[in-house]
Amino acid sequence: MLQGFKAFISRGNVIDLAVAVIIGAAFGAIVTATVDHIVNPLLGAFVPTGDLSSWVLTFPGLFAKVNFGIGAIISAIINFLAVAAVVYFALVLPMNKLAERRAAKLGVAEDEPAAPTQEELLAEIRDLLAAQRGL
């Protein structure tokens, strides 16, 4: 039982994934700090509270006022978009370029015709059988 776990954990993919999670968490902290301490104060100049993350919309309720923390939501969206942009431009785009170069080096055509679907193959077989029977 422990041997199987040891074999699983010592595979490269698991270790790479663990490293990616740790680096991702550290990077998330950097982006969060940047958004909280640079972006939010800049955008805070345009909201009534002066701080984007503390911006609250208040509506009257039946028994008490209802507060919607719209600033925290906007801050989280900005944080997400910043992380997504960095991941795209730092990881996805270079990996796609690398895959294109590798495909070009191997001579693989990008516009190869797609393999026929199962339905298309069955229709072709049906047509051939019908032609053999003379229908």
TrEMBL record:
GO cellular component: plasma membrane
Gene name of the encoded protein: mscL
Name of the featured protein: Large-conductance mechanosensitive channel
NCBIfam families according to UniProt: mscL
InterPro entries for this protein: Mechanosensitive_channel_CS, MS_channel, MSC/AndL, MscL_channel
Record family assignment: Belongs to the MscL family.
UniProt keyword Translocase present: no
Transmembrane segments: 12-35, 68-93
Source organism, top-level taxon: Bacteria
Annotated organism of origin: Microbacterium stercoris
